[in-house]
Amino acid sequence: MPLRARRGDADVYAFDCDLIAWEYVKRTYKTADLRMPCCDSLAIPKTSKLGNFFFSHARRGECTTAPESAEHVFLKTLVAKAAVKAGWTVTTEKAGTSPHGADWVADVLCVNGRATIALELQLSYQTVQELKARQETYASSGVRAAWFASGERFKAGYLSPSQYIPFFVLPTIELGCDPLVQGYEVTLSEFVIGMLSKRLSWKSDPWEYGIHFLHDQCWACGGEVRQVFGWSIDVYGDAAKTVPNMSTVLEKFEDFISNDDLRALGLNTIGKFERLKGNAPGFPYCNVCIHCSAPQNNHYIMKKIDEQGQARWQDGSSKIGTATFLSPRESTGQWHFAVSDR
User: Fold this and answer.
1) pTM given for the model
2) Phi-psi group of 246: left, alpha or beta (phi > 0 → left; psi -120 to 50 → alpha; rest → beta)
3) What does the angle CA 169 – CA 175 – CA 176 come to, to the nearest 5 degrees?
4) What pLDDT, in 10s, does the model give residues 289-334?
5) What pLDDT, in 10s, does the model give residues 100-153?
6) Backbone angles phi, psi at 332, to 5 degrees
7) Which end of the chain has the least Cβ crowding within 10 Å, N or C?
8) Domain topology for 68-198
């Protein structure tokens, strides 16, 4: 049940009409030649039992657009009106195609200058994989998207808080009642207005890594260096145990920290040297001196680490240390909504 019909090159919006305007649309739709945006069939303006305005196909024919529930039409009307109130240009049931040929239809497409946001009402269940695929289709089309989902269909833990996929739950949907957004204690209408008025922001909590290193000297220049050999985060982590394993552990560093970040911490960087004496064949990753860029072979460093392990148990001394790193690549976080002062 779309909220939009076409009259020539102009759009007619059900959500934008008051009772008097809607009655006029109903009286004149035959001569106005209103058409459905989905299939260009004749559009009939109708009013639901709860007073919601919408357009219906005169004849569905071969149109493949799925019918919408009364709840979906009601929520879409709330969202569209809120977006207009926030000062955005709104188009409901807006169709588009990504550069890769994937079609999409936004429930409520909001445009303000160069910003384009699709607001989706998701009342039927879809898998996380389907959600991510649809989000990627929007993203490749230059459209941001936010989702409002039924708490009856999407249970807690369905999706972790994500900056890339803003996903919010409406715990109870009753026709005629503007629902509260779960966790924010504001209505859907107020939430949409706030979102489009920059009162919704993502607060990131970067993951804190421990980078384990050995105080040492570079074999080439004699400079003091910190040879990295392991990492940890909370109770998880990994550290070199054998010469081949050290290469594997160091390769993992690329996932969460750059060489520039290692250098900023005063640590050796990591390089790849296919043929280096002291590295196991096929395991090329090793430390690179922060001063002279000389590769540091893994056999030598593993021998030093083993010696330090024995010294720690014998007299408590050790040249092994840990540096703390907050990774910008990996983080958790939450959406924060600022309630209006009005």
Assistant:
1) 0.62
2) alpha
3) 110
4) 999 999 999 999 999 988 876 544 444 457 899 999 988 766 678 8
5) 999 999 999 999 999 999 999 999 999 999 999 999 999 999 999 999 999 988
6) -110, 175
7) C
8) Trna Endonuclease; Chain: A, domain 1 (3.40.1350)
